[in-house]
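Why do we care about 3D structure at all? Because function follows from shape, and shape follows, mostly, from sequence. That is the central idea of this module. The next example makes it concrete: a single protein chain, its amino acid sequence, and then its structure expressed as tokens.
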Amino acid sequence: MRKIPTLFQRDPDDRKHVLPQVNPDAEWVLNGEGIATRKYDGTCVKLDGERWWARREVKAAKPPPPGFEFEQRDAVTGKTVGWEPFEQSAFSGYLREAVEREPRTEPGSYELCGPKVNGNPEGFPHHVLVRHGALVLQAPRDYDGLRDWLGSHEGEGIVWHHPDGRMAKIKRRDFPGLTPN
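And the structure:
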């Protein structure tokens, strides 16, 4: 899973929040292209058809873990993004629990959510795997409309999926005054 660009540009004086200027890499969203889906707050994992992998960010100048598969380097933070075998992940037991509860065989990326993942902001009673892009939303695409919409809906945010594979995201917490769900 490559790092997904944020829909709006970050405020250079407050990098936690966005400004009402569109990120040029995501202008296609404001042009009405792509499908909006719910962004779940958990940790990213993928099934490659044979084995499970956990998304991993490695800080600049730190060595990657054994078996790490490189995806991309973030030019802003210097972090390397990629995948590590799930057995090495701090979430391996929770992934195992989710797969045992509801086996998944379709290759792709999922969000692992549940009681022991990121404080369980989604409120799941047990560990689950949610397929990325599974819940399609009807959401506005402009700054003010999205701020208001995210302030009145559940979930971490929105990820738009373009037919050509591009993605863009916006999180509730990207807007000043909105807090995580």
